[in-house]
Amino acid sequence: xxxxxxxxxxxxxxxxxxxxxxxxxxxxxxxxxxxxxxxxxxxxxxxxxxxxxxxxxxxxxxxxxxxxxxxxxxxxxxxxxxxxxxxxxxxxxxxxxxxxxxxxxxxxxxxxxxxxxxxxxxxxxxxxxxxxxxxxxxxxxxxxxxxxxxxxxxxxxxxxxxxxxxxxxxxxxxxxxxxxxxxxxxxxxxxxxxxxxxxxxxxxxxxxxxxxxxxxxxxxxxxxxxxxxxxxxxxxxxxxxxxxxxxxxxxxxxxxxxxxxxxxxxxxxxxxxxxxxxxxxxxxxxxxxxxxxxxxxxxxxxxxxxxxxxxxxxxxxxxxxxxxxxxxxxxxxxxxxxxxxxxxxxxxxxxxxxxxxxxxxxxxxxxxxxxxxxxxxxxxxxx
Length: 383
What we know:
alpha/beta
């Protein structure tokens, strides 16, 4: 028994020493430079193996927020529940914002040595911005240190509390009093149920709650745009963005709330594309057709097509939604060809009882891909 005790004590001592060595100078909060305001970025510690074993944070969201805040003159610290190095989900390293942060030694050092939330002094920061990713659903809502940071910043004058995508999960368990929650009565957004059902299938069954449902249960007035389209809500100190394509806009809303005019920038192609689609759904497609014709390089054509595809393949959609999805895809088809996409478009026109258009698409498809047997069989059914 004594031997087991000493072995246990030795293990605990090793763990303690390892932790102390891991949290060395680089992951201490930076001293505030005179006249420079600081923002705290918070990410999940939950991720493992690039999201294959456990989901982590979204690098796309981190990088966009980092760039907005750094280019607008803010000092940035990065915190996570456990501190130290954290793992994002798999991401595209070639995207311009990701490439910019990956080549930024200061940013990467902060990511490799995140501050444990238990060591954060909230008084140093003018704003907190919680990055999303599905990992945020598993650890951030249950981190008492993060809850304390948000609670005290909420009760500090001239501060901003922000989150994007799954990030608002960090706020749902913070109490204002014994009987009420901090979020009660606030207007907010976040990754909505429709987006979870469409894009969160791998992990959603393991979630402790659905974000939209939990926010509503906390008496939040929840609003959202169509799935994966940019949407930002500002209500007092709180600023929330619905999904990854809301990141830069929500970060700029933080800058504005802190009294600055955000520096001018060129919109990223993916961000630009989702804003274009959102405008189409409100104002029609004619303007977008001309916009793409004149400035195709400013947009992510494939993303527009894929977005329309995801709306089209939902068999529960009605004729109006089918027509909308086809119009979205049609924005991209003058600039790209994909046989699966064209095949699904033909099926969509059949649903709309437009066999002539479906026949035309299938014939064009087979001219380019004669071996596409499903297209040939479908064409034979059209009289």
